[in-house]
User: What shape does this take?
Amino acid sequence: MNGVHDMGGMHGFGPVEAEASEPVFHAEWERRTFALVLAAGAGRWNIDQGRFAREQMPPAEYLRASYYERWLWGLERLLVETGRLTAGERDAARRARPTPAEPGDRLAHSPLAADTLRAADVPAFLQNRRAARRDAVVPPRFHAGDAVRARNLNPTGHTRLPRYCRGHVGVVDRDHGVFVFPDTHAAGLGPKPQHVYSVRFDARELWGSEAPMNDRVYVDLWDDYLDKA
Amino acid sequence: MSEDHGRHEHGPHGHRPADDPDHPHNAPLSDVQLRVRALESLLTEKGLVDPAALDALIDTYQTKVGPRNGAHVVARAWTDPAFKRRLLEDSTAAIAELGYIGRQGEDMVVVENTPSVHNLVVCTLCSCYPWPVLGLPPVWYKSSPYRSRAVIDPRGVLREFGVDLSEGVEVRVWDSTAELRYLVLPERPAGTEGLTLAQLALLVTRDSMIGTGQPSSPGAARPRS
Assistant: This one.
């Protein structure tokens, strides 16, 4: 979707401001949100569905929200979409005013659902070495050195083809191998495994003749995003 | 690290500083804190999350995984030419030799800075970042200014980080649009010939592995970021 999350090349957001000695999390709710997103989604929805959920946050709200507020919004959306919470339960949780409790002072004895990530399984969950790569034998449509044009696609669903490179010509720098295709994967239409390439675009091809002559932008793009140039 | 904060206003970082004096530790819980707490209680009641699993996830990224891992990879590459060759040829396997594997680092690509090439990593579409070697990303990496400008004005962004490149240096920006995760191998600083691997690792800053900084110079050691 042509959402506000697709920010590459936009102006007006101001300087990049780095915080000295930044903590990993800035508040307890950020920690809990991070962990809730990983744990609640484990084995229940894929990373592309997770990203697409966040992308659907209304644009003004997305830009106003902090990072973990976007994560929280996406989590609530997926819990309702997948039928794990009703919209009413979600809204009640949003309005909730529970008694302040200490971390650990929780409902420890609720029986866990069969597919719930157990504490004992967290190390294996985090050390899993295979995610989006597939063994499927799919012939590559391109090879290193080929000139390619990023297709001018404007799907309303999830895509990982940034707007700033659509229609532009680059060169295949390397073939990364076969991966699931996010556009279908996010829509629940299957992995559609295909090759992903690092495509090298001249800065001048993307941004015009004012851009520095020697600068390049490398974008990882799937076969379905590319035509021979 | 402070306790819970009030609902924040969104400055350039989209969060309040951790030591905000306007929000003492005993301040009333904010809307977002209450909302997260209520959601966690609800999911726990339904058996959809294991609170102990949440604690284990947080502990991993707060205390165990961070840019020290990446600094070890870089220092090893600086001192071991055979490792460096493997690292550039099959980054995932070479990094796994040192034990750094897993989520958001399943498929790694290491890109090397040289006197004529400077690499910079971004994720314009979200916040993709190599967790096993760098931990979770800093706020600026996930911010709109960085995501929007790194591809169109990398030299301007680099100047804001104090990195001023000459025109002759080629800037390569890597937009992490797929499931490949990028780590910059910075140049080894001059004057480090006698240093041990552990001493070298102390010079490798997080930002130097994203491309927004250079390694510290020996003798000018300062707290790493």
